[in-house]
Design a protein that fits this description.
Number of strands: 26
Oligomer: single chain
CATH topology of the largest domain: FAD/NAD(P)-binding domain
Number of domains: 2
Largest sheet: 5 strands, parallel
Shape: globular
Strand order of the largest sheet: 3-2-1-7-24
Pfam family, one: FMO-like
Family: Belongs to the FMO family.
EC number: 1.-.-.-
Keywords: Endoplasmic reticulum, FAD, Flavoprotein, Membrane, Monooxygenase, NADP, Oxidoreductase, Transmembrane, Transmembrane helix
Cofactor: FAD
CATH architecture of the largest domain: 3-Layer(bba) Sandwich
Length: 561
């Protein structure tokens, strides 16, 4: 029976892993190499190598309701898209509320994790740690949860940029970027158009003489601000939206791309990518189009070579007198404390069953948590992984055979390669709702949609038509939380609260209440009919026009808030 668990890292994944252990009656001990919690989301003026870092201006891409833990809604007063310091405050409040700090040993680095000689029987691990002062200690644990993330090892492919070693200016990886201080009046080239590249280009363009944003493949750019000024990730992210996307993927993709190009033409702006929208995580940036239209950021193709202080691009254009080159070229991943070969690399990804459990272990007593990405927030995914892993540790859930897990990894890898524009440093992408639901199904916490619609239609409609917020996975089963229903019913109130800094007068509308009631009753009947129809037939037989209206409904009914 597993009792003691070593948790490596006290970032968002580590914190929820500690809590999941406590929820299952396990004894977690967390080792954090720095002096505080937060991981990636704790800004460091002078970060240490091997640790994640962010720049001073970072605003989180996911809204607070989508990135929250499933039994800990964010305070209503917090902005929907928080500054990194506010997210750190939320994580600190989470740790204080559930009394997690007493389980964390700060300034303690895990040096090695090795199987004990009797591992096939005990499943135990020897974990060697080192304090900042140099003292080393070895402890034995029944299980290990690795929560170190994948933004710690900067990828700097200098060989791809001939002449960089003789560059007369300064170059560095985006990991080292703190702020635009020191870039005043400079000519800056940013290489790479991921989220960091876009942010840094915008940030630097406010003080630099000129910023050039170099990209090999382009990117789809989305805003945090959606229809009606609501958080963009709360719209079009319902279970119904996901169902329609699954039934008509090409149509939904075209519709999404047309919507983005109505905001600004990606081809005109030089950003049009080769891949389709859902094939790769888009760049989330509210300001980049404005910096491009004002000429403060000029989009350029990939760099061919560097000559002195001049940068030559693949289209033959040359920018002279460049002062700074920032490489926003992503990260490598590494687990130097684990045994060599334990996390075997299978093509574009690690050989991890469900992105959590390594194959080849006699006992499933080591889990990797939070080593994943999706079109959405990581926190709920990491929390679900931690809840699932701790149930496996306790023996309440059993993993399939080694062969079955290997076949699952191969199928998942094939899907990854065929569906997503998979890069070597981005092998971790999953579909948010299907991935969450698959694990929730095993845990017994997947929401019973039909039951909710019949017994509690106010909650059921929000689960079906509203954003797929994490609270849905606390409505039933192990870890059920009595506050889940209320959290779902009040989520739009928390969205609206931070906007109420000035309350302008509203025109009177006598028909609003009755219209809303009619709409809700109509939707209730429609959903019940569709649910019944779905159980007997297939939604693929429904008319496309009706599905289009269904897909549009969530954006119509946000007046519920």
């Amino acid at each position: 029976m597993v009792c003691t668990v070593a948790v490596i890292g006290a970032g968002p994944s580590g914190l929820t892993s500690i809590k999941s252990c406590l929820d299952e009656g396990l004894e977690p001990t967390c080792f954090e190499s720095s002096e505080d919690i937060g991981g990636l989301w704790r800004f460091k003026e002078h970060p240490d190598p091997g640790r994640a870092n962010i720049y001073e201006s970072v605003i989180i891409n996911s809204s607070k309701e989508m990135m929250s833990y499933s039994d800990f809604p964010p305070p209503a007063h917090l902005p929907n898209n928080m500054h990194h310091s506010q997210l750190l405050s939320y994580l600190r409040l989470y740790a204080q509320t559930f009394d997690l700090f007493k389980h964390i040993y700060f300034q303690t680095t895990v040096v090695s994790v090795r199987q004990r000689p009797d591992f096939p029987v005990s499943g135990q691990w020897e974990v060697k740690t080192e304090k900042r002062e140099g003292q080393r200690e070895t402890q034995v644990f029944d299980a290990v949860m690795v929560c170190t993330g994948h933004f710690t090892q900067p990828h700097l492919p200098l060989n791809d940029f001939p002449g960089i070693e003789e560059f007369e200016g300064t170059y560095f990886h985006s990991w080292e970027y703190r702020s635009a201080e020191g870039l005043q009046g400079k000519r800056v080239v940013v290489v790479g158009i991921g989220n960091s590249g876009g942010d840094i280009a915008v940030d630097a363009s406010r003080v630099a003489e000129q910023v050039y944003l170099s990209t090999r493949k382009g990117a789809w750019v989305v805003s945090r601000v959606g229809a009606g000024g609501l958080p963009g990730d709360l719209l079009g992210t319902s279970r119904l939206d996901r169902l329609v996307q699954k039934l008509f993927p090409s149509w939904i993709t075209r519709m999404m791309e047309k919507k983005l190009n109505r905001t600004f033409d990606h081809r005109l702006y030089g950003l049009q990518p080769k891949h389709r929208f859902f094939a790769q995580i888009p760049v989330v940036n509210d300001d980049l189009p404005g910096r491009i239209i004002s000429g403060r950021v000029l989009v350029k193709p990939n760099i061919r070579e560097i000559k002195g202080s001049s940068v030559v691009f693949e289209d033959g254009s040359v920018v002279e007198k460049v002062d700074v080159v920032v490489f926003a070229t992503g990260y490598n991943y590494d687990f130097p404390f684990l045994p060599s070969g334990l996390l075997a690399n299978g093509g574009h990804r690690l050989c991890l069953y469900r992105h959590v459990f390594p194959l080849g272990l006699a006992r499933p007593s080591l889990a990797v948590v939070g080593f994943i990405c999706n079109l959405g927030a990581i926190n709920p995914l990491a929390e679900m992984q931690a809840r699932w892993a701790t149930q496996v540790f306790k023996g309440l859930l059993t993993l399939p055979s080694e062969e079955a897990m290997l076949q699952d990894v191969k199928r998942d890898t094939s899907t990854l390669q065929n569906r997503f524009a998979c890069l070597e440093r981005h092998p971790l992408q999953v579909d948010h709702i299907p991935y969450m639901d698959s694990m929730a199904e095993e845990l017994g916490v997947r929401p019973n949609l039909l039951g909710l619609l019949l017994r509690e239609p106010d909650v059921g409609l929000r689960v079906l038509l509203g954003p797929c917020t994490p609270y849905q996975y606390r409505l039933r089963g192990p870890g059920q939380w009595d506050g889940a229903r209320q959290a779902i019913l009040t989520q739009w109130e928390r969205v609206a609260q931070p906007f109420r800094t000035r309350m302008p007068p509203q025109p009177e509308s006598r028909t609003r209440a009755s219209s809303s009631l009619i709409l809700i009753l109509t939707l209730s009947g429609t959903v019940l009919l569709l649910t019944t129809f779905y159980t007997r037939h297939s939604l693929s037989s429904l008319p496309t026009g009706l599905l289009y209206k269904m897909y549009s409904l969530p954006e119509i009914i946000w007046g519920w808030k």
